Structure prediction request, 77 residues.
Amino acid sequence: MWRDNQAIRAFVPASPHREAVRNLPHWCDEAAFADWEQDTADWPAWEIAQEKLATTARLVSVLYPSEKQKAGKIESS
Prediction:
């Protein structure tokens, strides 16, 4: 969770995120991310985060995708 878009833009190309993203295709068989803005700085409830993933997430390419990843499915569990 970031306070603003500038903080995200600083984090994405920096360590450790840069190395994690570089290795993610080797480590994972499913990967996705979602982003959204909210009115408060409070962490969202897990149910809200799951719903955002299920409805707005973008899949990340992995080398050995699961059947769900191949089908483009993101489950919220």
The first helix runs from residue 5 to 11.
